[in-house]
Amino acid sequence: MLQKVYRFIARYQLPLFLGLALAFSAGIAAAAAAAGNEDIAILTVFTPSLLAIVLTAVLSGRVGLSDLLVKRFWGHSRWIWVAISVGLVPITAFLAILIASFWGGPAPALRTTQLLPQIIVIILISVGEEFGWRGYALPRLQQRYSPLIASLILGVFWAVWHIPGYLIGVGVPLAMPLIVFFLWVILMTILMTWVYNHTQSVLLAIIMHSAANGAFNYLPLLPEFTGQLEPFLLLLGLLGLVVTAVVFGDSKHIGFFTGIRTRTLVGEHDA
Q: Quick one: pLDDT at residue 169?
C-alpha cells in the first residue's frame, strides 16, 4: 500500500503540488473568513515552500532536501544577476511613477520610511513562496515545457493562488481589477524564470520577489495608496517591453521557445 502511494506521489508530484497549493490557499482563506480574523490568511504564504519541502522529503529524502534547500538556494549567481534581481522592478516602478507624474500622477518619492515590521514581512512572504514556485515547480515544468510555456503555466497558477486572499480582502492589491494583477504576476513570472535559468538560485528569486513587494510598499505605485491606476499600468507597459526584449533577445541562451538548453541547465555554470 505504501509503495502504491509513493508511486502515485512520484508520478503526479507536480499536479499534486499545484493542486494542494491552491487547496491550502482556499482553505486558509475560508478559515480566516469563518473566524473573522484576516490575520490567519498570512499562513497561506508559507504553503508553497512547505509543500515543496514535504514532497521533496518524501520522494528524495536528505539528498533531495539538500539540493532544494542548499544547492538551489545558492545556485551560481554573478553580481549582474544580483543587481537585476534587486533593481529591475524598483527602478522600472520609479520610472513609471516619474512618467505618470507629468500627467497628474503622484510625484516620485518614498511613500513611507518605516522599515519594521514591513521588511520582515516582505522577506518572510518571499521565503515562504519561492522554494515552492521557483525551487520546486519551475524546474519540473521546464522538464516538460519550454521556459516560456512553463512561465505562463506557473504564472496562471501563482495568480489564481492569490484569489482566495483577494476575495477576503487581504494579500493582493485590492483597488485594481483582478485581470491587471494577473498580468503583473505573469510578467513577473517570465522575468523570474529568466533570472532563475541563468543562476539556478532560489535566493535571487527571493530577492527579486522581495524587491517587487518592497516597491509596492515604499513607492506611490499601487492605486490603494494613490487613488490612481495609471502608474501601475505604466509599470506593466514598461515591464512588457522588458519581457519582450528578454524573451526574444535571450532566447539563444535560455531557449525560451524551445527549452533545449534549460533542460540540461541544472549543474551548469552561467557563461
A: 86
